[in-house]
Structures are given as structure tokens and as C-alpha cells.
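Continuing the batch. This is chain 6 of the set; chains 1 through 5 are on the previous pages. Same settings as before, nothing changed between runs. Recording input and output for traceability.
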Amino acid sequence: MEALVIVAHGSHLNSESSTPTFAHADTIRATGAFDEVREGFWKEEPPFREVLRTVESDEVYVVPLFISEGYFTEQVIPRELRLAEWDPAQWDSDGTSATHTTLTPTDVDKRVHYCGPVGTHDAMSDVVVQRAESVTGDPDVGEGFGLAVVGHGTERNENSAKAIEYHAERIAAMDRFDEVRPLFMDEDPEVDDVTDYFESEDVVVVPLFIADGYHTQEDIPEDMGLTDDYRTGWETPAEVDGHRIWYSGAVGTEPLMADVVLERAADAGADVEAAIDRVRAETTGADVAGH
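Output for chain 6:
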């Protein structure tokens, strides 16, 4: 038997924090690709420390629903899953290239394929673009538009910025949008000054966050000038300094995110190609034959 375990941060304060995790798990569960699909959280139930004990399968694919490599993916999750053989060097990553490693927990008789975070997978670039399509209602959005990929940014974890810059570069290389820029909350270039970085009148802003919460629903809209008070809401698009800002909210709420989870498991050896095709077809409406 094979199981998929999606691990995410969760929150005691924001009831919506875990909603994307459960939604993507349900999408994958419906494909029948795994005998079991489970969720585990740092701040909610079931906790990381117990989640493997809820699984009957002896072959387990663990996919972190996190944006970047760093403290949680390299220290907290392996420790809580009791992956004693773990060493970040096993990912052989430059900060955006983690794939997977296979380990045995010390407390349960299972083989765990520990995968890199969803946020650094190449397929995440497609989710950012899909998010732009969703917020504008235009499946061909790109020409005449700028795109801002927004991250938290922090001096404590240089990989936090790397993930944002990586996807901005990949999307820019698609030559779909007139301009693509990485912006940040806590380092330069800052999202507060979004209109300073674009000549395009229309700018789609996509935050590379897993769930909507304090940052995406309060800080960023106010910082960009979409509203003086997040509690009153804002227009989409909103007029700011002569630009139309199309603010999408957290990328992790996009249904196509389930595809990235499956892609991570596939990279680790799971036979889920049919499930990937199904999820892509259902969440994008695209013909994915031959994927």
C-alpha cells in the first residue's frame, strides 16, 4: 500500500489556514492515486509528530506544503517525523532544487520518501500563471499586463527570496507577460511600491503564500494602497497611481496546486501520471493528453 501525506503549517489563530491543504488532499484523494491521503500540521491536528501513525501503508510519500526550503522543511518536519537519518545535504539543493530522499522513521516501520517543498517545484510557475488567469477571468492574460510575484522575504532565510526570484525568472522566460518582477514584503524591492516597478497599466499581483491570512488579506492590500482598511475590502482591479492592480490572493488556494503535490510525489517515484493528467484537466480545462 502507498500513502500520500501532505504536511503544512496550519494555525491556531486563522481557521482558513488549513483550508487549502484539505482541499488539495480531497482533490488528490478523488483520483484514487494513493491508498491513503492524510494531512499533518505544525499548528493543528493531526500534528507532524503523530501523522505517520495514522497511516497503514508501509510506503509513504511526504510532501511539504511550504514555499521555500528552510527551517521547517530542513529541521522541523524531519525532526517531528523522526527521520533520524535526515541531512539537508541529501537534497543536494542550491535552495530551489530539492527533490526527494528516502528514509526510515525510528518509531514506525515505514519507508518514507521525503520530498522537497511544493513552492520550489517547476510546476509552481504554472500555478502562478493560472492564478493570474483566475483573478482576471482571462485564460489568455499576458499581453499588455505586468506580473508581480510576491514573497515574504527575510534575512533569516535567504532561500525565501530565492523561490520567488526563481519563479519570476521562469515566467519571464515564457514571454507571456510584458513585465515580470519579484517583489517582497520585508526586503527590497518592496511590494509597497509595486507601481514604481511597472510601466504596464495592468498589473497582476500574485502572493507566493500557501494560504490566505494576515499577510495576504491585511498587510499586502493595505501596503499596495488597494484600501485604507482591509476590513472594508477593495476593488478588483483597483486603481493605484495610474495602474490597475489585479490582486489575486494566495497562490496556494489555486486548485491547480494539487498538481504540484502530485508532481513532487512523481519525482520521488510514485506512479501518478494518470492522476496528474486528471487534476490538470479538471483545474485548468486544458487538454493534457501526452503529459
